[in-house]
Model the fold of this input.
Amino acid sequence: MIPKLHYISQGNTPEAHLDNLQKACSHGVTLVQLRLKNVPLDQVLNIAKEARAITAQYGTKLIINDHYEVAKEVKADGVHLGKTDSCPTVARAHLYSWQIIGGTANKLEDCVSLIDKGVDYIGLGPLRFTTTKKNLSPILGYNGYRQITGTLKTKTRIIAIGGITIDDVTDLLQTGIHGIAVSGEITNDFTKIDALQQSLEASLIEEQRHTFK
Done:
């Protein structure tokens, strides 16, 4: 099962990433992604081991950004691969069968390619401009999500990402996406996790209500 709320770690140092992951877990988030950039692989592995220990205490899913070898080594719940990272089929051959693979997409063609390669979820974005990611892809906006999900009609979970705030949740879910990945909105105020999850859960209940009519 792919949770509806993903927290992507932030911090000026690897230790700050761990501290923020700890805070996110303690406030009830059910999936965190360790996203370390420009950090040596051996240090990523050491930090990932600590992240695994933290998430294990809370029963929180841990996704490792970019490094599927690290994800396997620490027995993380999965890996998230960017557009310039390893191919999902290569990662799948290396990982345990139970580990999740997510991939980054910005347009319909990206999504189709990732679905063909058997990813478990797609991180689609950005919704709007964000300083969290360098070399940002073209902005999608709500209409962009609506057009892509409407064309895909896939069972593969679509996770919206990129500058998302709590005020976006209801409108975003109406575009057909499964959930959201959030970084700055949570890092700036970890108490928002509960409100974000309540908004996402309210949408799930509404979906079920329509399904059983």
